Amino acid sequence: VQLQASGGGSVQAGGSLRLSCAASGRTFANYVMTWFRQAPGKERELVAAIGVGSTTYYSESVRGRFTISRDNAESTVYLEMNNLQPEDTAVYYCAASASFSVVIDRAPDYWGQGTLVTRLQ
Fold it and tell me: Of 18, 28, 54, 59, which is the most exposed, with the fewest CB atoms less than 10 Å away?
């Protein structure tokens, strides 16, 4: 699976962004899709996941502000980010997994390249 993330940028306080990740190479609908992020000097963390049946998972830090969704016809997963906070500044990565156990093991099967999100002070 090849993954191409886009949509990053810089936003003011309270701003919003929508990240997209286009997949190719395999049957997108068969994969659990996830968004991770890595802030400067910190470890990569799982932000959100969406299963093949659209079950979702969110980290505590983004629940209620971020929404993950998928469009199987377009082989694309989205991350809608609202009310961005300074601590949301990070490089965001999309990833694909064969199993929803990725929310436990944090070890996807495929990674995309990152897209930078910056919440301006």
Answer: 54
